[in-house]
Amino acid sequence: MEQVFAYPAKWWSEAVTVWLVVAVVIYVIVAIPGLYFIMKYRFKPGVREIGDHEKHGHWGLEALWTIVPTIIVLVLATYSFAVFKKQRTAPPDAMTIKVTGFMWGWQVEYLDEKGNTIKTVVTSFNPSSYEIPEDQKIVVPAGKPVKALLTSLDVIHSFYVKPARITEDMVPGRITHLWFQINKPGEYWVFCREFCGTGHSHMFTKLKVVPPEQFALWLKSETNVANKPSQIDGNL
User: Which of 20, 113, 118, 191 is the most buried (most CB within 10 A)?
Assistant: First the structure.
């Protein structure tokens, strides 16, 4: 697999690595001395059975274990916010699609720079098959950021792009958003990750990632409106 396979999955992986390393280091720093003191000062019959009552303190140590954790928390918070901002902010050159969820399928509209729909693809609900017809797959260009405007026609759904490790709720009457970029051509799963009724397990489609020149030709081909369910006509 390529080192930079998909965004924001790359940043998720990096963030997990950073937090894991910090957690392991803190665990080692705390656990090893803790185990040592447990063994060294464990209860022994007849030995110091009456504890000390004198109060001792060390301002240097008190400052150290207050300041250092504070610095760690601030660094992690700043880093995490920076990662979150990158995950939520689509690049300026991102292409825009509008995805409308409905029980239990997807309508994807490809928008031009003025927000006009230039092509529509709809995935129909099929409770008896896990196959996706070729003309119902969401086609996007490889290496191109894609901003998805999300909404729902009926109940709350969630648009989950598996290779990009990104998901966002689709709420009726509201527009939410996410963005992703997949650099390797291929076909990848898209699922609904919000339980939305009896057909939820079949609310999925395929994301078909193709070279940019192939995508340009596909975008100019006949618009897929024949599969548009009559139940959503006139409601979007």
Answer: 191
Q: What is the pLDDT along the chain (236 residues), one digit of tens a residue?
A: 344 578 898 888 899 999 999 999 999 998 998 999 888 888 777 777 676 666 667 788 888 888 988 999 999 999 999 999 999 999 999 999 999 999 999 999 999 888 899 999 999 898 888 889 999 999 999 999 999 999 999 999 999 999 999 999 999 999 999 999 999 999 999 999 999 999 999 999 999 999 999 999 999 886 554 344 434 443 33
Kindly list the structural domains of the chain, giving each domain's residue range(s) and its CATH number in brackets, ordered by start: 6-88 (1.10.287), 95-230 (2.60.40.420)
3-state secondary structure of 119: strand
For residue 3, CA distances in Å to 14, 94, 191, 208 come to 12, 21, 24, 20
| N-to-C CA span, the chain | 39
Q: Which helix (H) or strand (E) holds 10?
A: helix 9-40
Whole-angstrom distance, CA of residue 80 vs CA of residue 20: 13
User: Residue 141: is the preceding peptide bond cis (ω within 30°)?
Assistant: no
Spatial distance between the Cα atoms of 56 and 76, rounded to a whole number of angstroms = 33
Q: Print burial letters for 50-88: b (CB count within 10 Å at least 16), e (below 16).
A: eeeeeeeeeeeeeeeeeeeeeeeeeeeeeeeeebeeebe
Per DSSP bridges, beta strands 186-192 and 157-161 are: antiparallel
With CA atoms as reference, report the closest residue to 22 among 63, 61, 71: 71
